[in-house]
Amino acid sequence: MPRSWIDGHLDLAYISQVSGDLSHDTGTGGPRSVSLGRLARGGVGIVAATLFVDPSPDAQGHPWGYAGHDDWEGANRAALAQLAIYERLEASGIARIVRTDGDLDDASRLRLVVLMEGSDPIRDADDVARWHTLGVRMVGLSWAMGSRFSGGNARSGPLTADGRAVVAALDAHGIIHDASHLSDESLDSVLAATNRMVVASHSNARALMRSKPRHISDEAAREIARRGGVVGLNLFGRFLADGRTATIEDALSHVDHIAHAAGTRAVSALGSDLDGGFGPDAVPEGIRHPDEYEMLAAGLAARGWSPLDVEGFAGQNWLRVLRQCLPSARR
Q1: DSSP state of 101
Q2: Secondary-structure class of domain 5-325 per CATH
Q3: Cα separations in angstroms, 149 against 160, 207, 281
């Protein structure tokens, strides 16, 4: 029976806006890694599908762009346009937006857990309820440059007062906190403000990289694991090795390091970020597409990981998180 994978971070709506219909398979050597066909062939049944909108100057004039952190209307409009892509996939029967734990069991189609990457589309704490109703089940308060609520990995600083109110609102609605782009100060603030689970959907081991602010420290990995969360392996080559071409072995070393630092392999997961601003050539050869993820499983097994631990990395650890955090279908 084929292995079932969960990818904890794919910018599917953004990819669709940049490079066209996800049903189009560009093939080996094409400009993108991800297509619906490759996800299906790889056994990827559940994806954390992002709402990724961008205030940087290069994004202006694009559907995903908006004018800056104070441009709530623009950020909201861009995020709703990406959500509409997922809604169309659901209406066509190709995908299902995961709203409750029961939706995870619909193996007849791709299941999408909507992850807001950067919180500028949220107007204020009261607006969290609207986004929960629309289907958002995971939120990272910041993309790289921070937000109105927090610092980011490229802009230091703790949560603002409004950010602390948003954290409380996210908790009240059972929305999962994603730490991947938070500044250290903001991550510390989130961990102090909530006792709930935290994940890092697409982060690697800071100890193995010189580009330190973007990645998870050993201490953060331990705290995420203590709360039952996961750290998703990011496959961008520049996040796997410094100053040289990254390999599958580099990717496996990040998984190993985080598990060792956290004291448990239950923290290990995948959050590939494929096509998240980079193409297949920027990913280690052999794992450039979702239908090649099995190479990661084989590599972990070769390093002595048990079949149960490998299954955890492939999807069961994410599944545990989602079943624990999502609203119950029985309520």
Answers
A1: G
A2: alpha beta
A3: 5, 27, 35
Determine how many CB atoms are found less than 10 A away from the CB of residue 210.
8
Residue 138 parent element (H or E)? strand 136-140
pTM: 0.97
Nearest to 187 by CA among 228, 232, 137, 146: 146
- For residue 281, give the H/E element and its range: none
pLDDT digits (tens, 9 = 90+) for 273-324: 999 999 999 999 999 999 999 999 999 999 999 999 999 999 999 999 999 9
Token pair listed for 103? 């939706």
- The answer to whether the beta carbons of residues 124 and 166 sit under 8 Å apart is yes
Please tell me the total number of residues recorded for the chain in this structure.
Answer: 331
Give first-to-last CA distance, the chain, whole Å: 33
- Domain ranges across the chain: 5-325
- Residue 84 neighbours by CB under 8 Å, 6+ apart: none
Report how far residue 102's alpha carbon sits from residue 114's, in angstroms, rounded to the nearest whole number: 15
